[in-house]
Amino acid sequence: MPMADAPGTINTRAVLVGVDLGAVDFTASLEELALLASSAGAEPIDTITAKRNAPDPAHFVGSGKADEIGVAAKAAGAELVIFNHALSPAQQRNLERRLELRVIDRTSLILDIFAQRAQSHEGKLQVELAQLQHLATRLIRGWTHLERQKGGIGLRGPGETQLETDRRLIGERVKALRTRLAKLRKQHETQRRARGRNNTFSVSLVGYTNAGKSTLFNTLTKAGVYVANQLFATLDTTSRRLYLGDQTGSVVISDTVGFVRELPHQLVAAFRATLEETIHADVLLHVVDGSSPTRMEQIEQVNEVLREIGADHIPQILVWNKIDMADLQPAVERDEHDKISRVFISARSGAGLDLLREAIVEAAASGATSAPGLSPKNEEQDDAAPEFLDDFLDEDLGESNPTSTHVGPH
Asked: Is 156 a member of any domain?
């Protein structure tokens, strides 16, 4: 369903809630939540913060703060409350009852953005699987009308039967999604093996969302991938050949989905086919927004996801992008082993791109197998996917919900 980005629609008025649990990047994370909410089609009209040592088991913020949020939200005419945290199903239900407003968490918000942005058939399948998994424990929310009946005689059975029917239908859908994604994964493996037989060097662009990966990809390859100043502008992996001269020939360069703080586990797992382009790359170009004050935290967030998907063994070159906004000059830095570790560029203006191409040529010439602290890629690593991805695709569905959580107006 179209969200508030569509012409003529009205943005959903939302109150943002952030709880400071002692994280050093609390302020930056809350600012990012506002960007995520806007990307999803919501209009942040107020931000409420709290400080706690630990989340409240029932309402995450405690009952007193929950009442304060409810008063502020209703006074501002809000239709939605968005928490900058992952809420348990019980916390979400308790908050919705207490606030008498729709409540979603950061995970649901990101899933909603992914649902809007997915363009390819594969991307849509991956998002649907992630949504079903996230909403697995929230099926009961669709049947709260039965709670008013207090389980009277003759009412308990039909409710349970309907829930069981939904679980069966959802289970069948998830099984079908897994089968189709497994076929797509085999197709990707066939393509990668073909590239391997041709000794084609593979490069993947990774980085925090909105760091400029797609702009860089378009500048290098003239691919015409969609670019916008928003979070998660592109989800689907796009690969193109890039000619780097007679000596190196062509390499395959891939633009991948951007990462973000607390990227939902369900998305990391469901986007297995997409992220495996990263897992099987020969070198990663880690694109960084050099103008962002939180760039170091963003670098660590990306590296954390790379560790989670099993791509932390692949050599990296840091690509310090947006130097035109940071008053920096094109340059190259080398590590103690005389290998290029960082390249300063502007994908928008093209400054420093010749240095980046030289860095890729040098990496291809050396096979990108001897970066310090990193092991070379081998066939065993190619064939071995992270265990949690396999577990995710094989696990039982349990309870689920056939509907996705939308942020924008319905």
From this structure: no
How many domains are contained in the chain?
2
For residue 59, the one-letter residue type is: H
pTM above 0.85, yes or no: no
As given in the structure block, the two tokens for residue 315 are 């050599």
pLDDT for position 401: 37
Among candidates 124, 134, 112, 89, which has minimal Cα distance to 2? 112
198 and 95 assigned to the same domain:
no
Confidence of residue 397 (pLDDT cuts 50, 70, 90): very low
Tell me: the pLDDT tens digits for 82-123?
999 999 989 999 999 999 999 999 988 988 888 887 777 877
Query: DSSP per residue over 71-108, as a string?
Result: HHHHHTT-SEEEESSPPPHHHHHHHHHHH-SEEE-HHH
What is the three-class DSSP state of 268? helix
Residue finishing a domain among 104, 123, 151: 104
State the amino acid at position 9 in one-letter form: T
Sorted by sequence, the CB contacts under 8 Å of residue 287 that are 6+ apart come out as 205, 206, 207, 211, 212, 213, 216, 319, 321, 347
- Cα(103)–Cα(402) distance, integer angstroms: 18
* Secondary structure class of 342 (helix, strand, coil): strand
Nearest alpha-carbon partner for 407 in 180, 196, 117, 133 = 117
